[in-house]
Amino acid sequence: MNSKSLTCCVVFLLHTNLLSSTSPSSLIHVNSTTSILNVTLPHSLSQSLEDFALKTLTNQHHTGSLYRAVLPKNLSGIEVSIVRLTGKSLWTSGARFSNVLIPARSVSVPPARRVAIVYQNLGNWSNHWYTVPGYRLITSVLGFRVLDVSDQDNVKEISLKMKNPVKILFRDLSDEKMLSRVSCVNFKAQNEDKEAARISRMILPGVCYGSSHGDYSVIEPLEKDKKKVALWRTRWWLWMVGLVLGFGVLWFLGFVCTMGLRILRTKKIQVVMEREANDGEVFESRWVGGSKMPSATVTRTLPESESGFENCSHG
């Protein structure tokens, strides 16, 4: 009996030690580490990066200063920074930090007394997290998120309403020749967005424009797609040249037909006039100066004397 009770006590103690080793704090640590190592969605990665950025603000209290977040080694290559602003300063001056230029007259939705902007540069992780079918990324993915930090215990992601578009600068791209082959791509911040990625034209070298927070990059078509694009552009130019030439040929044919009709009409009038001339009196032609003109034969009527005058003269 004593041996059984001793065995039960040992089992109870082992069970208690196992439970204590898997306390909530340790479970949270394991889960948080796993979420960082095994995140499968860009949105979950952004949430993890936001958490690291917010930890930076716990010891930094200067509003309007940009702070670099410290990331674990398994996320080396990614750069994250954060700045805290008031809603008033965001409206008055905007936010010009990192490679993202948020214009003035921007307001958070819903309105927030204090906001934090998290800037992300995914670096060599860009191709791992984002792909665009038929294209390849030629720059790192740059992005930003806006957080409502008015209540430190209830931090939530919010959006911005801007009068002018936000500018994302890719400083390594400055060649204007690339504008014909590269495009800007905007990856939506929320994974429930219907349009996951939006491709737009790059107007200025190294500058992309956006209307909301999210991630941005620069892409170019793959080699096969480059050939398709080049073939399409060649065909498009051929169609345009053919269209212009076609209109030119049609105009020329119309002009020739119009002139031909005029000539035929003139000749017809001349034929009619010649017929009428042949049916009437024939006139001789004489040259007067450099012109050939019709001339009639001069026929002079002989004078006839009246009988009365003749008798008088003879008498």
TrEMBL record:
Signal peptide: 1-21
Keyword hit for S-adenosyl-L-methionine: no
UniProt entry keywords in alphabetical sequence: Membrane, Signal, Transmembrane, Transmembrane helix
Pfam entry (one): DUF1191
GO CC, alphabetical: membrane
Listed transmembrane segments: 236-261
Highest taxon above the source species: Eukaryota
The keyword Transmembrane is assigned to this record: yes
Protein name, as recorded: Legume lectin domain-containing protein
Source organism of this protein record: Brassica cretica
Upper taxonomic lineage: Eukaryota, Viridiplantae, Streptophyta, Embryophyta, Tracheophyta
